[in-house]
Design a protein that fits this description.
Helix content: 10-25%
Largest sheet: 6 strands, antiparallel
Order of helices and strands: HEEEEEHEEHEEEE
Number of strands: 11
Shape: globular
Length: about 200
């Protein structure tokens, strides 16, 4: 695997060349298709909006009227078969938006020449984990603020700064995911940031 360029000191992802940008577009589109295929395999219908207003896919069960907005984020894994990491970028304004409408993120990871893992998580759940654990790091680009979230994957866990995302790993049912409730593991009221543990990745 080609060595990734070092990120800038402000925490933002490294800049990419035109050819790298094309590769990113292809990876993103193939990730969207992979996510749609997972839904269709489970007899959950999907549709792509004609106008891109921040939602990649609309998802609806054939026997229900509820439409769920889904935002797909894709990344290439960096590591080996036993442990790897993947980096995702989420707009802060989107993450902090008051619901409704509800939004579900699907973080799709391409690793070892296949789509290996999907993190399926509600926006409200991710925002609560961010408040509780201080996951990720923020940066500004063109006057907009983003969350840079690097997830570390092993066979038994997915983590960032002491927060586990394992319970959202490849979990497509029930659909849509339940709203976070106070008292759930990893979900607590308030805005306390737990300190990072030794060995945790910084972003």
């Amino acid at each position: 695997m080609a060595k990734q360029p070092a990120p800038p000191q402000d925490g933002s992802p490294p800049s990419v060349t035109l050819s790298e940008g094309m590769d990113t577009n292809y990876t993103g589109s193939s990730g969207h298709m992979a996510v749609m295929a997972e839904f269709l395999h489970r007899r959950i219908n999907v549709a792509i909006p004609v106008v891109d207003a921040g939602d990649d896919v609309f998802v609806v069960r054939h026997d229900e009227e509820l439409v769920t907005r889904v935002q797909v984020k894709t990344a290439n894994g960096d590591g080996n078969a036993d442990a790897y990491s993947a980096q995702f970028t989420i707009p802060i304004a989107q993450l902090e938006r008051i619901e409704p409408p509800s939004l579900v993120y699907v973080f799709a990871v391409r690793h070892l020449d296949r789509w290996l893992d999907f993190i399926v998580i509600r926006r409200t759940t991710l925002q609560q984990i961010r408040l509780d654990f201080g996951v990720g790091s923020t940066f500004k680009k063109r006057e907009k603020e983003y969350l840079n979230l690097t997830l570390s994957f092993t066979a038994s866990n997915v983590t960032n700064k002491g927060a586990s995302f394992q319970k959202y790993r490849n979990v497509w049912e029930p659909w849509p995911p339940a709203q976070p409730q106070q008292g759930q593991e990893g979900i607590h009221p308030g805005t306390h940031h737990s300190p990072a543990r030794a060995g945790d990745n910084p972003g």
